[in-house]
Each structure stands twice: as structure tokens, then as C-alpha cells.
Write a structure and sequence with these properties.
- The complex is a heterodimer of chains A (379) and B (322).
- By secondary structure, chain A is an alpha/beta fold.
- The relative contact order of chain A is 0.16.
- In chain A, the strands form 2 sheets. Chain A has a 5-stranded parallel sheet, sandwiched between helices. Chain A has a two-stranded antiparallel sheet with strand order 4-5.
- In chain B, the strands form 3 sheets. In chain B, strands 3-2-4-5-7-6-12 form a 7-stranded mixed sheet, with helices on both faces.
- Chain B has 322 residues and is of the alpha/beta class.
- In chain B, helix 1 packs parallel to helix 7 and helix 3 packs parallel to helix 4.
- Chain B is built from 12 helices and 14 strands.
- The chains are: A alpha/beta (379), B alpha/beta (322).
- Chains A and B meet through helix 5, helix 6 and helix 13 of A and helix 3, helix 4 and helix 5 of B.
Chain lengths: 379, 322
């Protein structure tokens, strides 16, 4: 019979309260660790983009339910973390996302329809990573953290960090989830970033669940504290507070650009929906937990603040509702309009120049495809 | 000029670094030490520690960071210290490095070279003698090449660095200290095979560490009155079936030799393609002489385990017995 091993108790998240600048009731506060002048922030714009990111997500889920998408990883509940972080970015800063950063993609100006192709099965990528400085989604957990490190090494070698010229200095923002912290590659990325003092910010959305595994399976200490073991700062913010996420990312990116090295940001948030549309969250977590977090909705608290400040005029609300409808329409029509790729597309761009053997296989495949299905053989 | 393969690789890398400021070398112990096999000896002193980078000890990090560097316009040449140490980097190589050009519809170009000393025959210990070539050759998006002479080592490493695709560059470590003449220009494009010795009775196909063994076997066979043509494949992905096909048309027989395991090894690919496309030219089944389907053995057993001259001669006999 196995003996129960007596471990010291895990440190609970409450052991280290995340920094908050906007509380769930919509009240502003200050924190000397994250100085921010709310008057200098376009709060209605933040609210607009959080609302549109949520609508994008809602429509994509609907499209999946209608059979238009094979799968969709929902961002619901993480709008503040994503939009807050994205608002801290400069145009040259490079983003290395996971597969859930739809809100960041939106803020980076990507055509939202291009996000759907990967999940509809029309593409394996779907956008130009250099056009908006937003890399392709990475499905293998944690792999992108090392790409971010390498890109940051390139910035350093280009003299594009710590040069003292704000028009030149650039940083990298890598997104990851709490599950990625358990991957060896993420830990290697931290080692490299620390030892070389690289201009990279790791933004961890701790949404509490790695599919069905709670954070306690990954770690006995809060995410942010793990940074100190690698030798760089970690900061823990309320991930449902868009101002705290913005302020922390802005501070960390500034530090990175000016030669101050990496930071790990932990945005404490919650994945309100299941991991993806293929997942059933009711098998591993309680409705009470989800309700408790839903009550801390990131959009609600910003709306409450804007209302109390008299910033939500009828005109603003009407305009936003129209933008939402336009976005939804664009996604629905755009999704159904995504053309199936050519039969030759898997062969293209596998190599810079197609090898002779692959050309032969392509010829055979196109010949086969052009004959079409035979009666009774295929349906 | 006659030099060892190590020196030829060193010279080739020096030339690549001098030719293009975006080329950089990265790996464990390659800077101060010059690499455990001294392939990068002196290069850090000449080009500095930003271009010859001693990395943290983490193979996934080496390849993963190379991907990010390449996205920023650099041409990283990674050293994996030994064949058996590439496995921690396999994820980055297979799921990321090989795929990103295709996933991005050609927008991301990853001109990354991964150098790996590989193969047995140096009396080393566990994980220091493996032949992982088919893991790479089976992965779309990677090129896989291996040199067998100092001349090829010097030129192929530069061709690999200049190539816009990721190239896994396998260096036959037991021939690192074998000397040979290095000529001024590459004989062929990187993907092409070369006929090392002409013959009329049987085509012997080899690559990397097995090429010198194949040539020695051909010498012995000649003493026995048998004319063996030796083809050095050089590139496993893509591989040059055209040169192999032309040779088999001349001889009607083919033997493939490699150190990697028998089942699912590269010889299986060669045999399958030849029987599929050249069946009517073949006068005998394609014979394979390879390592066995076991872990690489303790080094006291390796001389019999590896496909040596005698086992290759037996395979030639078998082919000629039909």
C-alpha cells in the first residue's frame, strides 16, 4: 500500500494578492509598484476593443457550433489581460502568441477572418507574421517562448535594444499559459533570457486550468515568483483588470527595450469557457467556481467605471453596438467565404524550391484529384 | 591542400562567417573550447562571442532560439554536441523548424543549419555513436546531408549555410581526422549524389561514415575480380535517385550500406524505390547491409556490429549470386 507523502502546504494564490488598479466594482486605485495615470489612457478605446474581442470570440464559437469551424479555443474572461498587454506594444515590438491570443491579434490589426482559417482547416497559418509583428499561433505548448528568445537575441545583435533611441529600441512580447510553465522549453527560455539579459517580456495568462489540470498540478508557488529563481523580476497583476495589465506590460516592455532585461508577468485570470469547443469543463470544475469568476468579469468592471465617470454616452454605446454587428457579419460572411485551399498547396512552400521528388508526387496527386471520385468508390 | 575533415569544416565555417555578417554559430562549448571535436577552434577569437556563441546547456533552446534569430534575419549554425543529444531538441526541429516555412506560406524563411557529429566506430560510450538520420529524413521541410570527404566537408557546410531551408548536417565523427585534398570549388549542388568509384558488376550505395568502408570493400572486391561502383549519396533528403538509377542501369544490381538500424532505415527507402521504378533493370533483389534493430552496442562489440568490409563483401556476394 502506498504511503501518502506529507508535503508542506502549497502557497495559495491569496498568499500574494495580485496588483489591482481597477476593482470589480469599477473603482480606480493606485499602487506605487505600477504608477499609471488613468487620465492619460484612452479608457473607452480599451472598452471598445475588449468588447469587440469578446464578440469575435462569441461569433467564432457560434460558427463552430454551426459546423463552420472544426475547433475554437475561447478567450472569454481573458479580454483584459490580452487587450491590456496589447495596448502596451509599440509597432516594432514582436509578439509570439499561443493559440488563444485573439484579442491581441485584434489589437495588432490582423483581419479577424484570417484567425478562422486555422480552425476551419483552410490554412496552417493564415497571416503574414511580419506585417503586424504578430507571429503565427503556436499549438505546441511553450515552443514559442524560445522563438521569442531568439528574436530578442537578434534585436540585441542589431543594436535595436538599449540604444537610447526610442525610435529604434524594440522588445519582444511572448504569451504563454500556466501549463506552459511546466514545459522544459519554457524553462530553457527563462534561462537564456536571464543569462543574456534579453529584451523579452513573458506574459503568462494564468487562467487556472491547463485543459483539466488545475494550477496546483503545475506548481507549488505563484507563477510570478518563479521568475526570481531564474534571476529576473516577476510581477503578479489582476488579469481581469485591464489597467493593471496595461501598466505592468508597459513597464516591462520599457525596461526590456532600454536594456533592462526580461520580466515575467503573471496575469491572474480565468478561462470562463472550456479549453476549446471540444472540451467539457463540467467534468473537472464546479459551476460555483465558474460563477465566482464570471462575477469578476473584466468588461463589467471597466463599464462600471466608464458609466460612473459619465463616459458611456448614448452615441458611444450605439456606435459600439453597430461595430459589434459589423464585426459579427464580417466574421460570418468571411468564414463561409474562406476558399478551400488548392490541392497543390500542401506541396508548396514545404521547401524554398520544390525538390524533384516532391514535384513528381505533386503531379501524381493532381492527376488523381483531377479524375474526381469514381462511381461507388468514394463519396 | 590536404587537411583533416575537422580542419575542412573549420575552414568552411570561417569562410561562411566571413562571407555573411548574418551567419552565427551557436552551441555548447563551441566558443572558448572550440567544440568537443574542435570543429569551431579559434573562430570565437576571430569573430567574437556574439557570432560564436557558447549557449546554455539545452538543446531545445539552441534550436528554438535559432528559429527566432532566423526570423530576425540571421543564419544560425547550431552544433548539437553528439548524435544522441539531439532528442531534447526534436520538438523544435520537427514541429517548428521544419514546418514554419510551409505554415507561413513561404513568408518565414528559416536558413538554419544543425550540425551533428554522428555515427559509431570511435570506441565511445552510450549515446555517442548513434545514426539518427531517418528521423530527420522522414520529416518534410528539412534537408538532410552528410559529408564523407574533407573536400565535401569544406564546400557542403558552406552550401548548407547558404541554403534557405533548414539543413541537418551530419558529420561522420570517425572520419573527423581523416585527411584529404580540398579543391577550390564544390563538385556538385548540395542535393546531388556522386559516383566515387566506377564499376560494372554491382552498385554499392553509401553515405557519410560508410563511404570509406564501401570504397575499401570495393578495393577488396576488385582483387577478387569484381567490379563495384560506389555511389556516395551525400544528401538523404532530398535524395538523388537519378544518379543511383543511372548507376543501377549500368550494373543491374544494388547494395545499400549504412550504420543505422535495418528496419525502416534509409536502405529500405532506396530498395523500395529501385524495385518500384527500376524493376526491369534489376537482376537481383536490392540487398541491405546495416546496423541491427538494437540499441547501439557497447563499444567492445561495435566493430562486428557496424557494417564493415566483410559484411559488405558478403552482401555483394549475395547480390551477385542471383
Amino acid at each position: 500500500m502506498a504511503h501518502a507523502v506529507q508535503l508542506p502546504p502549497s502557497e495559495t494564490p491569496s498568499a500574494e494578492p495580485p496588483i489591482q488598479l481597477l476593482d470589480p466594482a469599477g473603482n480606480l486605485s493606485t499602487d506605487e509598484r505600477l504608477p499609471l495615470d488613468p487620465a492619460a489612457v484612452d479608457l473607452p478605446a480599451l472598452y471598445r476593443d475588449m468588447t469587440l474581442a469578446r464578440r469575435l470570440d462569441t461569433e467564432a464559437i457560434a460558427l463552430q457550433r454551426q459546423g463552420e469551424l472544426g475547433l475554437w479555443p475561447s478567450l472569454r474572461g481573458q479580454e483584459a489581460a490580452q487587450v491590456g498587454a496589447a495596448y502596451a506594444l509599440g509597432g516594432r515590438d514582436m509578439v509570439f502568441p499561443t493559440y488563444r491570443e485573439h484579442g491581441v491579434a485584434w489589437c495588432r490589426g490582423l483581419d479577424p477572418v484570417s484567425l478562422l482559417g486555422l480552425f476551419r482547416g483552410t490554412t496552417l497559418g493564415g497571416w503574414d507574421p511580419y506585417a503586424h509583428h504578430f507571429n503565427l499561433y503556436t499549438l505546441v505548448i511553450g515552443a514559442q517562448t524560445l522563438h521569442a528568445v531568439g528574436y530578442a537575441m537578434g534585436l540585441y545583435r542589431d543594436g535595436s535594444t538599449g540604444s537610447g533611441d526610442p525610435d529604434r529600441d524594440t522588445a519582444v512580447l511572448a504569451f504563454l499559459g500556466d501549463g506552459a510553465l511546466s514545459e522544459g522549453e519554457t524553462n530553457e527560455a527563462f534561462v537564456w533570457a536571464a543569462a543574456q539579459n534579453l529584451p523579452v517580456v513573458f506574459f503568462c495568462q494564468n487562467n487556472q486550468w491547463a485543459i483539466s489540470a488545475p494550477y496546483s498540478v503545475q506548481s507549488r508557488i505563484p507563477v510570478a515568483r518563479r521568475a526570481s529563481g531564474f534571476g529576473f523580476p516577476g510581477i503578479r497583476v489582476d488579469g481581469n483588470d485591464v489597467l493593471a495589465c496595461l501598466a505592468a506590460t508597459r513597464q516591462a516592455l520599457h525596461q526590456a527595450r532600454t536594456g533592462g532585461g526580461p520580466t515575467l508577468i503573471e496575469a491572474v485570470t480565468y478561462r470562463v469557457n472550456a479549453h476549446t469547443t471540444a472540451d467539457d469543463a463540467s467534468r473537472y470544475r464546479t459551476a460555483e467556481e465558474t460563477e465566482d469568476w464570471t462575477a469578476r468579469d473584466p468588461l463589467e468592471r471597466l463599464r462600471a467605471h466608464l458609466e460612473s465617470a459619465g463616459a458611456l454616452t448614448d452615441e458611444y454605446v450605439t456606435d459600439l453596438e453597430q461595430r459589434e454587428r459589423d464585426l459579427a457579419e464580417r466574421l460570418r460572411a468571411g468564414c463561409r467565404g474562406l476558399a478551400d485551399p488548392d490541392a497543390s498547396s500542401p506541396f508548396e512552400h514545404t521547401y524554398a524550391r520544390m525538390p524533384a521528388d516532391l514535384r513528381r508526387q505533386l503531379r501524381e496527386h493532381l492527376e488523381f484529384v483531377s479524375t474526381g471520385p469514381q462511381d461507388g468508390e468514394r463519396t | 591542400m590536404t587537411v583533416s575533415m575537422v580542419k575542412a569544416l573549420n575552414d568552411g565555417l570561417r569562410q561562411a562567417l566571413a562571407d555573411d555578417p548574418h551567419v552565427l554559430l551557436m552551441g555548447e562549448d563551441i566558443g572558448r573550447l572550440g567544440g568537443v571535436f574542435r570543429v569551431t577552434d579559434g573562430l570565437r577569437k576571430e569573430f567574437g562571442d556574439l557570432r560564436v556563441v557558447d549557449t546554455p546547456l539545452g538543446e531545445a533552446g539552441i534550436v528554438g532560439a535559432a528559429i527566432g534569430l532566423a526570423m530576425r534575419g540571421y543564419r544560425p549554425v547550431c552544433e548539437i554536441q553528439f548524435d544522441g543529444f539531439f532528442y531534447p531538441a526534436a520538438n523544435q526541429i520537427i514541429t517548428q523548424l521544419a514546418k514554419l516555412r510551409h505554415r507561413s506560406a513561404g513568408r518565414i524563411s528559416l536558413p538554419v543549419v544543425i550540425r551533428i557529429p554522428y555515427g559509431g566506430g570511435i570506441g565511445s560510450i552510450e549515446h555517442h555513436s548513434e545514426s539518427p538520420e531517418t528521423y530527420f529524413a522522414h520529416t518534410a521541410g528539412l534537408k538532410v546531408v552528410t559529408c564523407a570527404t574533407p573536400h565535401d566537408a569544406f564546400h557542403m557546410i558552406q552550401q548548407a549555410v547558404a541554403d534557405d531551408d533548414p539543413v541537418v548536417f551530419l558529420e561522420p565523427k570517425r572520419h573527423y581526422w581523416t585527411k584529404g585534398e580540398v579543391g577550390p570549388a564544390p563538385e556538385l549542388p548540395l542535393e546531388r549524389a556522386v559516383v566515387r568509384r566506377e564499376g560494372t558488376d554491382v552498385t554499392l550505395i553509401a553515405y557519410g561514415p560508410t563511404v570509406p568502408v564501401a570504397l575499401e570493400a570495393a578495393d577488396v572486391a576488385a582483387d577478387e575480380g569484381r567490379s563495384v561502383e560506389v555511389v556516395d549519396l551525400r544528401s538523404l533528403s532530398p535524395w538523388d535517385i537519378t544518379t543511383v538509377r543511372a548507376s543501377v542501369h549500368r550494373t543491374g544490381r544494388a547494395v545499400v550500406a549504412h550504420e543505422a538500424a535495418f528496419s525502416h532505415g534509409f536502405g529500405a527507402e532506396v530498395a523500395a524505390r529501385l524495385q518500384d521504378e527500376e524493376f526491369h533493370f534489376l537482376e537481383a533483389p536490392v540487398v541491405r547491409v546495416t546496423g541491427y534493430d538494437t540499441p547501439y552496442p557497447p563499444s567492445r562489440l561495435e566493430s562486428d556490429w557496424l557494417p564493415g568490409v566483410d559484411r559488405i563483401l558478403n552482401a555483394i556476394d549475395r547480390s551477385l549470386s542471383y
